[in-house]
Design goal:
Number of helices: 1
Helix content: over 70%
Structural class: mainly alpha
Distance between the termini: 63 Å
Shape: rod-shaped
Strand content: under 5%
Order of helices and strands: H
Number of strands: 0
Radius of gyration: 19 Å
Keywords: Coiled coil
């Protein structure tokens, strides 16, 4: 039973890590899009 709890906790931790990386990726895409639009208007 201890192993099952550890496996579940590890799975949840990995899931949260993946979700955080996905969110970070989306934020970086939004930032890059804004930068590209700003660069286009500067030139």
């Amino acid at each position: 039973m201890e192993t099952l709890r550890l496996a579940r906790a590890t799975h949840q931790l990995l899931e949260r890590g993946v979700e955080a990386l996905e969110k970070l990726g989306r934020e970086l895409e939004r930032y890059n899009d804004r930068q590209e639009r700003t660069d286009d208007t500067d030139s």
